[in-house]
Design a protein that fits this description.
alpha+beta; 2 domains; 3-stranded antiparallel sheet; globular; 11 strands
Length: 237
């Protein structure tokens, strides 16, 4: 007798991204997806971890077009899938701002939001040239993950993030796509910018969307009331 397939009739939930207000249907992940995530985590490979997360989302929320979503939006979607799969509450350790004692704090994953989403992605470099930027995706990250993970200089890491965010350049009504240009040509373009023009671009990079949660707790050691802003995907685990 064949073994039964359990949970074939899976519950379906909906989540609306706080950025573009698009709604996606999803199901909780099963053991097969959880096992892939755990194996990727144990491997210590950042690339394996990203691929396992993407594969999980593609299985649980097939309507989501991950290649068109920013990394923060993908992180948010995965967090909602995880919340319905293993629990909406999770415990993380946070330091007291006064005495630095570690406190175990329970947070609600359903209350996590996305901060830093900007409506304007056009930078006018001068009267004739307009630069369009885009939010980095996990497709960009996978292609550059070796360089990113091995980069030790913060300034170089920001510069590499900027290169991944370049989308198009409008010059006298001619549209130039950065995806059609070589790394050498892109480097020449960036090196030709004035410090003020570069700073406008870097401001976009510094304010890239990220997960955010406002945690509040009273320190178990000194009693200090803490309000700590948790930002970034890794901080929730």
């Amino acid at each position: 007798m064949a073994l039964p397939i359990i949970n074939d009739d899976k519950p379906i939930y909906e989540v609306t991204l706080p950025t573009n207000k698009k709604t996606y249907r999803y199901r909780p992940f099963l053991v097969k997806e959880q096992r892939n995530i755990l194996m990727a985590s144990e491997s210590g490979s950042a690339r394996d971890g990203v691929l396992a997360m993407i594969q999980c989302i593609e299985s649980c929320a097939p309507e989501a077009k991950i290649k068109d979503m920013s990394t923060a939006e993908v992180d948010f979607l995965f967090l909602q899938i995880r919340a319905k799969s293993v629990g909406e509450k999770t415990d993380i350790n946070l330091k007291c701002k006064k005495c630095e004692e570690l406190n175990e704090v329970k947070i609600d994953l359903t209350e996590v939001s996305i901060s830093g989403y900007q409506e304007n992605d056009i930078i006018e470099l001068n009267d004739k040239i307009k630069l369009k930027l885009k939010y980095t995706t996990y497709d960009d990250t996978i292609k550059n993950i070796t360089d990113i993970s091995e980069e030790e200089s913060t300034s170089n890491l920001i510069f590499k993030s900027l290169k991944m965010s370049l989308y198009s350049l409008e010059v006298d009504e001619e549209l130039i796509m950065f995806s059609d240009e070589s790394d050498e040509e892109i480097d020449k373009f960036l090196n030709s910018l004035t410090p003020d023009q570069l700073e406008k671009c870097l401001n976009f990079i510094r304010d890239l969307p990220k997960l955010q949660y406002d945690a509040k707790f009273a320190c178990k050691s000194c009693g200090e009331n803490n309000e700590i802003k948790i930002e970034g995907f890794q901080d929730f685990f």
